[in-house]
Each structure stands twice: as structure tokens, then as C-alpha cells.
Write a structure and sequence with these properties.
It is built from 2 helices and no strands. The protein is mainly α.
Amino acid sequence: MKFKFKLESVLKIRKHELKIEKQKLAAKIHQQNELEIKYENHLKNLKSAAKHKDEGGQTANQNREKMFQNYLLIETRMLNQLSEKITQKKQEVNQQRKAVTEANKQVQMIEKLKNKALMEYQMEADREEQRFQNEIATQMYHRQPKSWI
């Protein structure tokens, strides 16, 4: 007789759900990393522009100064927006980590039930084997000729 776990289909579904949750987590972490890279690039651009302005000294052209100020303003706003997006993405990643943890707990719970059922099955099979061996021993004992001393 072969061991068959009653909740095998549920376990399969839970493992698939865990896999999907892990994939979602990986995607969110990837998005967070991309946002952080963009943030770093904008920050480097801003620092580089400020450095070049300082090296250029006083600019005589007011239009150029105004354009530079607008550029700084736009880059600063972009940094603020990226910072907010990064914060939001970090919260999403934390929520997704909790979802992965919960899915993992579900899988582990069902696997424990499976292991317990398997152990019970093995114990019952061992008992059945022992009964069979006892029956054979009993029959052999009764078939032996009785010797009278």
C-alpha cells in the first residue's frame, strides 16, 4: 500500500503561492533598486552641475544664471519625488516580505502535517508487518511435531 497524503493538492497550491509571492518580492526589490540608482544619478548630476558652476566663476549672463537656477530647482524636485517613491517602495517591499513569511508559514504547517501523517503511516505499516511475522511464527510453531520427553 502506497502512502497518499490527503492534503497534497493543498500543499502544491501553497507552494505555488509561495513561489509567486517570492517573485513579487524580487520584482519590488528590483524596482526599489532602480529608483535608488536613479536617485544617485540625479544627485551626481546636481553635484556635478554645482561644481561646474563654481569652477566657471561669475557668469555675466543673467539668462544663463536663471537657467541654471531652474535646472537646480527641477533636479531638487526630481530628487524629492524619487525620495518619496523610494520610501513608498520600501514600505511595499516590507509588506511583500510579510506576505512571503505568511505564505512560508502556511507551507511549513502543511508539510508538518504531511510528515506527521507519513510517520503514522510508517508506524501502521510496521505494526502490520509485525502482525504478519507473528502469524507466520505462530503457524510454524503449530506445524512442528510435538516431541515427548
